[in-house]
Records
---
Amino acid sequence: MEVLKIATAGSVDDGKSTLIGRLLYDTKSLTTDKLEAIEKTSKQKGYDYLDFSLATDGLVAEREQGITIDVAHIYFATKTKSYIIADTPGHVEYTRNMVTGASTSQAAIILIDARKGVIEQTNRHFFINNLLRVKEVVVAINKMDLVDFSEERYNEIKADFEQLMAKRDYEEQKITFIPVSALKGDNVVHKSENTPWYEGETLLEHLEGLDMAAVSNVGTPRFPVQYVVRPKTEEFHDFRGFAGKVYGGELSVGDEMVALPSQTRSKIKDIYFYDKKYETASRRSSVTITLEDEINVSRGDMLVKVDDLPTMEKQFTATISWMDSQQLSSGSKYIVQHGVNKVLAKVETIHHKINPDYSGIDENANDLGMNDIAQVTFKLNKPIFYDKFKEHRTNGSFILIDTQSNNTVGAGFIS
Amino acid sequence: MKDTSHINPLENEAIYIFREVAAQFEKPVLLFSGGKDSITLVRLAQKAFWPAKIPFPLMHIDTGHNFPETIEFRDRLVKELGLELIVRNVQDSIDAGKVKEESGKYSSRNSLQTTTLLDAIEEFKFDACIGGARRDEEKARAKERIFSVRDDFGLWDEKNQRPELFDMLNGQIELGQNVRVFPISNWTELDVWSYIEKEGIEIPSIYFAHKRKVFLRDGLIWSHSDYVFQEEDEEVLERMVRFRTVGDMSCTAAVFSEATDIESVVQEIRDSTISERGARIDDKRSEAAMEKRKQQGYF
């Protein structure tokens, strides 16, 4: 089974929820009772069309204000794939939700209102998808019905967006433009008769055709140890299994490994998934590994191949996305959670803020507020074993935890 | 077999979450209702820790109005797997005067479970409660985190939730707080049923079509039972039905069905145009019913 996670980004009123509702409706994923609820509420509000946004806006406050204020997850499936959409709000103040949604996604849909074209918000949405290295981006130029399905307007917007693309620092990112009307259903699931000049795929056709291996970020294999399995039963008296998820690449029986931080070497003896043995642990599978030798490995340690070591340092510089109302300032201490490993960290230097719309940097950055993005150097109390985010999406990212509130207050991408 | 690439990504994710719970918390518990989602959780937990035993107990908050088939099944499963089971009863909370039994046509003990649950969490000092809720079930649940922090009063602050990035789960809490954990957050109803079919997991018989005494009200099929209030003019019928979701008898409606085995149940779910919670009487109370219950600590 294939699962594709998609993040959506669009400004208020770009019709994001309507687009998702349309995808659900045209793939017949909306059940009768949900549809009835939508019909009933649409009628109550006096609309002469179905308000599909009601299918996704979950919280009471959102229904009252007609906006999306938090990441909601929406599910639908076709014969080819299961889709998980992280519906993230588009307001300026909710950068943190967009970063969050993009972090778990392999693809993103950026919505543009065909009447408004590329606006400042679009820059932000694209910037975040660049920063998070989302490999597959679909630019859905929406509300085409309101510009008479004009090819000229579509090309104008496309050209504006291509100017933005020149500014990104992620060449491998694939970008596809699709003219749609979410409200009327043009080119979402069904090909539109209103855009004869458009020869590309519909949104769903495009998503269906995505090769999962190609949209995934591949790097070198990393095995952070989550949990040590020690059954201590008669049958498995000496069993010491290292449970974890394989990231980046694959690991096979016989591979020569080194455990970090101890730097002890051993070979992979067996790879288990539940009670079955396998030759190879594929990328992103949750396996249990046993080693030939009895070496000391515990949670937070990492097993890597001997010829493929990550950086092991007590200091790093990263781009961080700040997500808390309390400011981050120089000298303050946080917990860095890097995968399953936690270390204490001190803010050494805030180098500069990065405007999340490609408009440059702000050198005078003493402290960071909610939704700020900045270049920061941290000092750690113990070394971590990392790769650059550009080279390894998992082993190059971390979250920051406040030592007082225990809240997740930021996310970082190691430079 | 050669490699593990065929394994369902959702299964890999759930196993990862279970291991995070065992590693990050001191006293986790798996909330077990005897329904298909919690049975699926048990299988996933087995896989996460094999060949070791599941390193935490199961707990059932019993309304006393359960389907007898579910309770029988629960006891058998626990015995077969050698697990520890804790049962706490809503009846005890009623007897102690902590909650008041609802009365009338739509009375149910479903929402009373919250008090019993919060008391049990305090009694055992559980710091993580694992549940089978899924985001596709209901709109408020679509916003739920995988690790969802509850304060000392068991309350959910839906506007102030921790962001969850990449695979990283932040389980740091203060004493007195606890975390609700949802390993199958990203599964749909069909994903659960397909998994049960593929794994050959045994589930209580009421999930398959059987003859049952029922009555019809508000377009839903209600069980005829001592626990369910029934008007005199609501006629008792005997029909072939099955349950898609199993909770308290007073809040779970049946569907007409001829599906007597897992293959035909999966087929029915595929073809169905009604959502799973469409048969949950408790959700019909108002559009925001689930959100309100969740804020108060409901699972």
Note: Chain B touches chain A through 59 residues (CB under 8 Å).
---
Amino acid sequence: MGKVIEIDGLVKRYKELVALDHFNLEIEEGEIFGLLGPNGSGKSTTISCILGLLKYDKGEVKVFGKPMEASSYESKKDIGVVLQNVAVFDELNVEENIDYFCGLYITDKKLRKQYVDEAIEFAGLEEFRKFVPKKLSGGLLRRLNIACGIAHKPKLIFMDEPTVAVDPQSRNKILEGIVELNKKGATIIYTSHYMEEVEQICSRIAIMDQGKNLAIGTKEQLKDMIKTGETIQAEILNLSDDIMEEVKSLPHVYKVEYIDNHLKVHYTKGQRNLVRLIDFFKNKDVQFGRVYSELPTLNDVFLEITGKELRD
Amino acid sequence: MQTYKTFLKIALKNIPSIISYFIIFAIIAIMSTSQSEENEKLIYQDEAIKFTVFNRDGSKTGEAIKECLSEKNKYVEIEDNEETIRVALYYRDIYYAVVVPEGFEEAIKNGEDMELMNYKVPDSAMGYYMDLTLESYAKTLKGYVAAGYSIDEANDEAIETLKNTVEVNLLSDVESDKTIGNPMFGATDDKPSIYYFYQYVPYIFLAIMISGVGPIMITFGKSDIRKRVAVSSQSFKSYSAQMFLGVVTCGLALLALFNILAMILYAENISFAGIVSYVIITACLLAVSMGITYLGGNLFNKTATMGAFSNVVSLGFSFLGGIFVPLEFFGATMKNIARFTPTYWYVRANEAITGIKSFADINMEEFALACGVQLLFAVAFFSIGLAVSKYKREAA
Amino acid sequence: MFWHLYKYRLKVLFNEKMLFFWTGIFPIILGTLFYMVFSDITEKSENVSSINVVISTENSDAIVEEIVKSDNSFASFIDSMISEGYFDVDYADYATAKEMLADEKSDGMLLVEPTEKGVASSLVFSKSGMNQTILKYIINTYNQGMMVAEDTAMNAPDRLEAVLAEIYNNENINKNISVTVGDMDPYNQYYFALFAMTCMFGASFGMVNTAHSQADQSSVGMRRAASPTKKMAMVISEYFAAVTITEILFVVLLVYLTAVLGINLGNKYGLILFASVMASLLGVAIGYFFGVVVKGKQAFKDGVMMATILFLNFLAGLMMGNMKYIIEKSCPIVNRINPAAIISDCFYSICVYNDMNLYTRCIVSMGIWTVILAVCSISILRREKYANL
């Protein structure tokens, strides 16, 4: 397992704005790597730099172990890109679009035909071969956008928010496809601000904000990084302040809120919190309704690391 | 007044592109004006026609022809070779070249027929004029030879005789007794520069209005926005009225811009009556332009289509209506077609007020007719536009 | 790879409907307009009608007809002009004649004055034009002939007949050597300007190409920049695709003008086509240049480019045919460097003058322009890394 991408100390400035601030990243072969960050955090800038499209001020980018330049045609042959904006020709139909972009990589006509057919099948566009992009629904258009990026069977695929504005059905289809590509051996770099998607498919995740790589690891590792454990909520009518104070003194509890007849107890990591809380209520004779526990999500991780919600 | 305000806000954003249009067209108008002045010079000042003579005969007659033509025109020496002649004609270094063939003088002496030859700029007024002069000279020369003069004497007499030309006066200067030079066909008449400035205004007006204001109407006409307005509390009438007001505001700004420009450029030779009548005819034209813009804005959904519409309409009406090619060159068929363009009536209105010093000078009947027909055109365009808008609104 | 890029670029450009309008349909519409306006003009000038002359006198006491009749030769001259259909004569007093002139009911006023030697005449016009020129010429010829005749009558009366025979000899004594090919319509220059416009509108195809070629201009450009295809391969193959389409549209226009409208453009179609290819190369290069040099939104770039092209075509006589000659007289350098003027000159040189020197010079000028624009565009286009995306 070699390193597919190595980024060391990357700095990119747009006039005053620092888009990438000594950014570091290493991605291993065979990963589905998730790049998480709010809008404007530098995800797309990072990808453009890796692709050798964007000038940067400082740092080093290596792809497949070689420095990446605009003229690194050998490396580019093994790269596929699915951009944030749909990048297809409105004037060409589905099949022509895929054939065109595939043709930029594969010159052998026979092989290309096979690849194009496979890409169409992969994207589930068999019935839409002769459709021009305008006639496609949003979901199908995204699938075409993906098919154009992966038809040449690249070893390394960049996917910059490929599921933006896609209906749930198409989204599932896309996510399954990504996993499938990965199983066939492609390394995938995936950016999104849909937390669930990243949690669902990524083997490793980096959280970035303001051009910095704030945290990196598997989702479990990331969740471990933060002090938040589970959160327990209970419906309780007329909770007295005394009881509140007592709840606060229970083990592992670090924050208690009481809003709209809902008690919210935040725990640091620890065991048997739910049982202990219910026992406490019974002892104090507190009447309670529904009680449920939530484990921390990436969103909590994100919130704690960056100080802001991922979706704004 | 929300619609109206938004309309103007978008219009202000379009100002840079409208200004660039305006600058380009202002240059065109000013250049056309100087072009027409150029034409005038050709007619009324004794502008010399550049010509040359190839005296292949080497005779005195050849020299005499040169002398005779030089009387009013400018002799230019060039090499006697077809290639050189062609290039010189093409770049208007000369308009006319006379070839006196070998043996010409001998033929004249013996009373034989021998032709002079010439090269000239094809179909030019200058070439035609030189043809006539040369023909007169040859006939007169032959006449004197037939009368028994020696060839040298005949040449001298002919030169003297040709200096006698009929006295020509222009109607307007009959009293001042100013003679004119070489009258030319092709050029029209003694119209002042401001006539030419206003002559080209329709092209500019149509182009700027349709391509500048049209896109704003399209923005408002987008079906999403139209639907949003349809569900709003604003009535269709009020919405239309405010849009209309928006178009009128932009139009008035344009109207002011052009008339002020004209007044600055031609401050010296424009009377108060002139100013008023120019404002009236451009206002009629503005009404037409707005009508077409309104129609186009309701017909089309894309800015790019509007650009195409703008060019086809402005160039089409300009050619068909006699803006670029003067109406007097039109044959009967074309003149009949021209009647169906609003620009034709604008040209007539412009002609009716050319050179007026007071309101009494205006041919009122003609002026009112020309302006009235333009307004009818405007009303027609607006009505069709309104119908289209209503139809689309109901269809949406 | 060249064919793959070329083929798909053709497909993409063929589907740019708006550009097809500009380069394909618009010239045909304009050509039709020219045809409508100019064919009518040509027909009109072929039927020269007789000149309306009003004969009058400033001498208010005399009757005009009497003055004319007092001079036999003058009276018979006027009669012959009427009978041969040159003149349509009215007699009127001075005030009426002036009014007729002002109302353009009459082309010219012939003022007559009795003198000892016969009638002396002068002309008054309200404007100048073809009829006025002819009228002046006819009167001049009569006067000058009279001078020769008088002179002869005094010095050698026996030769008078021979002299009059020479003077009234209507044989052509001056032959024009045409420098043009065949029988050319003077309004053909409008079509040459139209050709120039069509080829230059090929620029809009060039501009689309640049938008699709730059990662900072379109998402398609970005995707292509990330591919292993060399930038120059793309630029060159797509440039030729744009030229191909421009040339096809030019040929459509040429066929329409010559075959459908029947406009005579000579027969040097080989040279016309070669010139149009050169012009298309130049036109598309203009599009590349504007595409990479002008900064801003696509619509803005388009607007700037189209306005510039139309302006250059205006200078080359697209709207007013004699614009080019005005410039030739006042500032000829503009015509040497204005691509629209160069292109229309080039067609002029083969269709009107059959002048290979001029043709070659125009072709070379187009080549120089194309190279300059191409070098400028490519130096910007070939960069593969962008400061901003």
Note: DSSP finds 15 helices and five strands in chain B.
